Amino acid sequence: MNAHRAAGDPRPHPTPTDDELAERITRALHARAAAQATDVDALTARLHAEAARRAGQPAPVVALRRGGRVVAAGLVTGTLAVAGAGAAAAADPYSPVARAVETAAQAVGIQWSAMPEGYTREQHDAVWAAYEVEDVERLSALWQTDPIETKARAGQMLLDGEVPPVAPRTGATAPTPDPSAEEAALEAYWASGYTTQDAEALSDLWHVELTEAKARAGQLLVEGQPVPVAPSGASEGAGATDRATPSH
């Protein structure tokens, strides 16, 4: 077969299997922990360089895990798979890493989001700027929708200036996301001895995604308030170990 390949032609690459793609994603995630802060300017520069390097070449197809399933994301104007940054952002869409990757991607004209399908970051910020977990649960029961659809619908209503059927808490203001505060909450969560298993218990209790459960519990810890589930880890070291090998 190689005899028919013209001189200088690139050597064909075998198409990876789903298992191989999953293994590559896992390696990328382990190499870059999602809780580690990302320099937006540096990532933007790397995206620019990679897009220029790939000019005129077929766009790569990168496997990203979203909502418990692997989806193929073809990036026509460039690539988001810079040292696993896209995969790390997709694995933890509410983290500072995800925000940084989205900002860098948009800076080079790539419209990409790590958020779950049908749920935008603007909706996410709007709904949590106005509502508590209990309010979202009431809306979900009223509309008979799952948590993601409920938050997307309520968040969009707020963005459009409409009022959802469950009134937001008193004194709610326009969303002002603070990545440093989110990172501090996650650090407090792990430093207090909480683990991924604890986050799963909180997720079931609050009916929210795993990452939101960790962030909410961490914020309670930062504010000195009790968390309804006790930490199962004994030290910050135990939390760091669990953090390095996420199960979601």
Keywords:
mainly alpha, 248 residues, 2 strands, disordered C terminus, globular, 3 domains, two-stranded antiparallel sheet, 11 helices
Give the topology, please:
Layout: H1 18-31, H2 40-53, E1 61-66, E2 69-74, H3 85-91, H4 96-107, H5 121-130, H6 133-143, H7 147-159, H8 179-191, H9 196-206, H10 210-222, H11 236-244
Antiparallel strand pairs: 1-2
Concise account of the structure shown:
51% of the residues lie in helices and 5% in strands. It is built from eleven helices and two strands, in the order ααββααααααααα.
Order of helices and strands: HHEEHHHHHHHHH
Separation, N- and C-terminal Cα atoms:
42 Å
Strand order of the largest sheet: 1-2
Query: What class do helices, strands and sheet pairing give?
Result: mainly alpha
What is the residue-averaged pLDDT? 67
The number of distinct β-strands equals: 2
- Counting structural domains, the number is 3
Quaternary arrangement of the chains shown?
single chain
Please characterize this protein's 3D structure.
With 248 residues, this protein is mainly α. It has three domains: 17-107, no CATH class; 116-176, no CATH class; 179-244, no CATH class. It has helices at residues 18-31, 40-53, 85-91, 96-107, 121-130, 133-143, 147-159, 179-191, 196-206, 210-222, 236-244, and strands at 61-66, 69-74. Helix 2 (40-53) packs across helix 4, helix 8 packs across helix 10 (210-222) and helix 9 (196-206) packs across helix 10. The protein is globular.
